[in-house]
Design the sequence.
């Protein structure tokens, strides 16, 4: 047990949501691994259970330790639940504010062994330290869900629009994406190694929400994230609240790709997030340290700017921008 603000939060080794009493919210520390001193490494879990157990909607954040916007999304979702809300809740909501606890503590993106956790899901029971961590998280947590909303942000040195990655060929994941009222939805079948892909392999409809930028809290995007989750709960008939409608039209992209530099230098990008680009449009310039222009870059096709680099110092193979494909 851990006492926090007069609350006693139990340490558990397995997540059994049936142990959370109906019409209540409970917090847990779920033990996943032990560190080099043999001390437990635990992840925070919040469970809000209504009168009935299912459906179970899981919301995860900070799979990368520097992706913070999803944390207050989950906090606000649960903090806003009144006793009346819990009495009327049909199903269960599970929030994991921080998945990658070791990296979160060290304010790093990757796991402590330098591996990207979102490239190795569902991990291995007998793998290295990141593999074991990923495996235990998927087996102990994700298997409890009927639906998964995985919250991310851009990486270091980049900024993102508020966008969703989802397999639009699957009706339920397409609907989950639509309900987010995001600026952009990108058709993206689950990639091997992602948490979304691991959920898909378990038959769990899942989407990835890219909620802005790393290492910061962005109030407007946090509010949008909460609204999107409320829309999902409303659509699934878990709550009685009406769905929030978007004030703008969501742009649907058939796919996307990053555009990279082929030489190093000081990078200037001439377009902004959400700009619609035409094929051949000038998007970036590379100059050397003396200020001489050495290369210009142009849009290879029509598209929308989903994300872009904000670091002027750019080596060969550096990212310029993330282009959503438009017909």
Sequence:
């Amino acid at each position: 047990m851990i006492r926090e603000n007069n609350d006693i939060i139990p340490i558990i080794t397995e997540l059994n949501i049936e142990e959370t009493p109906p019409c209540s919210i409970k917090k847990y520390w779920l033990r996943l691994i032990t560190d080099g001193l043999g001390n437990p490494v635990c992840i925070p879990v919040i469970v809000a259970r209504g009168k009935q157990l299912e459906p179970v909607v899981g919301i995860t954040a900070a799979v990368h330790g520097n992706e913070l916007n999803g944390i207050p999304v989950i906090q606000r979702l649960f903090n806003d639940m009144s006793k009346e809300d819990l009495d009327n809740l049909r199903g269960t909501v599970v929030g994991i504010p921080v998945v990658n606890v070791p990296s979160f503590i060290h304010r790093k993106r990757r796991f402590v062994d330098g591996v990207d956790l979102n490239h190795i899901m569902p991990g291995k029971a007998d793998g290295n330290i990141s593999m074991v961590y990923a495996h235990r998280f998927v087996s102990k947590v994700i298997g409890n869900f009927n639906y998964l909303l995985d919250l991310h942000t851009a990486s270091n040195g980049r900024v993102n629009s508020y966008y969703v990655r989802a397999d639009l060929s699957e009706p339920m994941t397409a609907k989950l994406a639509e309900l987010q009222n995001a600026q952009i939805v990108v058709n993206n079948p689950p990639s091997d190694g992602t948490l979304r892909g691991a959920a898909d392999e378990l038959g769990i409809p899942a989407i990835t929400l890219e909620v802005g930028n790393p290492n910061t809290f962005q109030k407007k995007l946090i509010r949008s994230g909460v609204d999107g989750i409320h829309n999902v709960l409303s659509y699934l008939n878990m709550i009685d609240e009406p769905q929030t409608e978007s004030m703008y039209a969501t742009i649907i992209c058939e796919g996307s790709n990053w555009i990279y530099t082929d030489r190093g230098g000081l990078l200037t990008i001439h377009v902004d997030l959400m700009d619609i680009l035409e094929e051949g449009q000038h998007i970036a310039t590379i100059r050397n340290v003396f200020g001489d222009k050495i290369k210009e870059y142009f849009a290879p096709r029509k598209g929308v700017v989903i994300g872009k680099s904000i670091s002027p110092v750019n080596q060969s193979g550096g990212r310029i921008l993330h282009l959503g494909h438009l017909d």
About this structure: The two ends are 56 Å apart (CA to CA). The CA atoms of residues 270 and 283 lie 5 Å apart. The first helix runs from residue 70 to 79.
